[in-house]
Amino acid sequence: MMKYFNIVFCILICLSLCTSFSLPAAAQHHSPDTEAHTLEAVTVTAEKLEEYVRNHPRRVTILERKEIQERHFMDIGEAIDTMPGVDVRQSGTGMGTRISIRGSAGSGSVLVLINGRPMNTSQYGSVDLSTIPIDIVKSVTVFKPPVPVWLGPGASAGAISIITHELEETQTEKKKKHAIQLKINGGSYGNASIAGSYVIPRSEGTVMLTAGGGHRDGKRENSDKDTGNFSFHWDKKTENQSQYDLNGRYYHSEHGSAGPTDNPTPDARQQYDKGSLDFRFKGFIGETGDFSLKTYTDAVRLEDTSQSGATSTLDVFKIGIKGDSVWAKDDTHALRVGGILERDAVDHTLSGDHHREKLSLHTQFDRDISNITGTFGLRGDYTNDFGWFPAFSSGMSYAPGKNSLLKANVGYSVKVPSFSQLYQPAHGSMDQVGGNPDLTEENIWSYDIGIEHKFGKNSVFEASLFRTDNKNLIAYDRDKDMIYRPRNIYKAYRQGAELSLKYQGWENVSTDISYILQKTENRETDKELTYAPRHKFKLTLKYSLPDADTKIEAIFRAVSRHYGSLDNSNTQKLDAYHSADLKIIQPFTYKALSSEAFVHFQNLFDNDFEVHHGYPDDGFRVMCGFVLNF
Q: Fewer Cβ atoms within 10 A, N terminus or C terminus of the chain?
């Protein structure tokens, strides 16, 4: 199987490269009339994206570049954490990010994509968002389950799509100039960081370089962390509107792994290095179609020293290719066809050598008929160690009025256990987490029905009912040796309601409210699922002082009690809590330089709580700094 996979992989790589170079050449032979039609199709395709978000049945939320800049997020994790129905917390083990969509932290997996390709590897069930500098992010899109099939496998609990900065605005003559940004900040518990970006405009594209580094001591013993990162971006747009871009990222971290308070590991340490390289080509097929082709690779190395002094190393190498084509005609229907081919190779001291080949093919058809939009998609997923599995998603939206939209969705997918779950995870010390080679695949059905109503220029209300049924749910539980290991739960479900309101009653004041009410059940024991609070509430208030241009943002969160163990024991009960954060941003001019000063207050009232059992919040802390734009 390995031999044939490599042959097929090489053939597809060659075909993709041939396509990349032949299509631009073919486009150059178009007649002037044909070229005009092609440019018209480009406009239709761009408008189609906005239509997809506005009228499509899927539950989609977007955070644009303008808002990212105005709200001055410290990192991409903080930006995603402010979106309605989404919670992001750094893993207490030092690596990885815990992402919850609609309160799904204890069940299902969230797929994270960057420029359309998956960041999650077979080894990592989670993803470290710290490897993505906030300076390169153009937009963030959250898909709530059931997600469309073309995003790919591994999105049973939702998906997050991160698009990096294409810097198209630098193509105008007015803005065609070099730009440098420098960000410096420091704060509580030895937090200090510096980051910079440099934009180099070119006649047919742009080059962008970013670099940064940081240090924190942390509140608990052995919770210190040192980080460094570097990235580059290059893009080129041709006369026929085809586009190439190349992105590279490197991230380094050295940190302690403190462990939970009931099983501390004050001497456990980890060193993590990750490098990524992506190439993407976007072009057009005839007069109504467009396509994108991506090739990518990741290289990861982790050195883990346990509390006992034992050491292990993990090396992960991933290479993949992903393609998507979309045909849209008359702005009434669209057909999407694509697939992904990927290989992961893992060499781990504790679990040995493993590899996984993955092939996924999908097609989706969207149809607009008057005030009704329907979609239906199919996908086939294959891995060499688990075989073939089907997936599908379908949805419909109906607009009873100009400002209202009814939506309904259903989807089915299969989650194959990651290497992290089967063998030994890399996101935590070997003293805390282990694997289970006897896991089987998880089957997921997802349902969603709701309404969206817009009122005013920038105000919208959304309400939805959702349900997820899992067979052989993969969930972690703690054994007698104090080590967490995954196992399959025969049947489980999660259902509830989500309400969100974005309201701007005045020009300088806006309010975002989200509330989730849910019920979960492990049908083997009639107990609740882990990390699934019944109530979650988030309130964001944003205010701008009209005369001073000062921006003030406050976020209030409230979470009901929940459990960190499948048996719902009181020893791993997480009490209800509430917290508040405050952010103040003041623009100013320094020697003709456009600048900003900022101060962030986290856990403003110094409340005691845990978002993960055994890892208490650091309490009240402050971060302040400034940004200079040259």
A: N
